[in-house]
Write a sequence for this structure.
């Protein structure tokens, strides 16, 4: 009886952590996209690096590696997404694919590699960029 109760308890904790990570990533992707559409840059960083920084600041409890990010954009009138952050009036999209390793050993075998890949996306239209004269 006790092992079953422990398995159930740890499974609940595992899925609660998974849900937290998903919500944190959703919020972070939304914040990163909101930052991206303004065209702002962090001093000394490229546009992509600046967006990654905004995402990491919005999700301080997660470690998000560079290879987990992808950027694409949809130019006006186009029907296919193109790699990169895009220009003014393009629809920019930030995608994060985050591998979450399950903590409960008895649940891991049910998932490939003992992990779940969480994928979140956020897209917004890039604003007109203002430069100071």
């Amino acid at each position: 009886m006790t092992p079953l109760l422990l398995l159930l308890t740890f499974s609940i904790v595992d899925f609660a952590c998974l849900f937290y990570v998903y919500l944190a990533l959703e919020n972070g992707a939304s914040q990163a996209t909101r930052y991206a559409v303004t065209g702002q840059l962090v001093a000394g960083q490229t546009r992509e690096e600046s967006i990654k920084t905004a995402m990491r600041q919005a999700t301080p409890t997660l470690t998000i590696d560079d290879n987990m990010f992808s950027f694409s954009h949809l130019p006006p009138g186009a029907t296919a997404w193109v790699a990169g952050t895009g220009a003014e009036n393009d629809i920019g999209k930030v995608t994060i694919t985050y591998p979450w390793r399950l903590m409960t050993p008895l649940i891991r075998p049910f998932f490939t590699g003992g992990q779940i890949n969480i994928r979140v996306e956020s897209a917004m239209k890039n604003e007109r960029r203002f430069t100071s004269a």
About this structure: The radius of gyration is 18 Å. Helices lie at 2-36, 47-58. The mean pLDDT is 90.
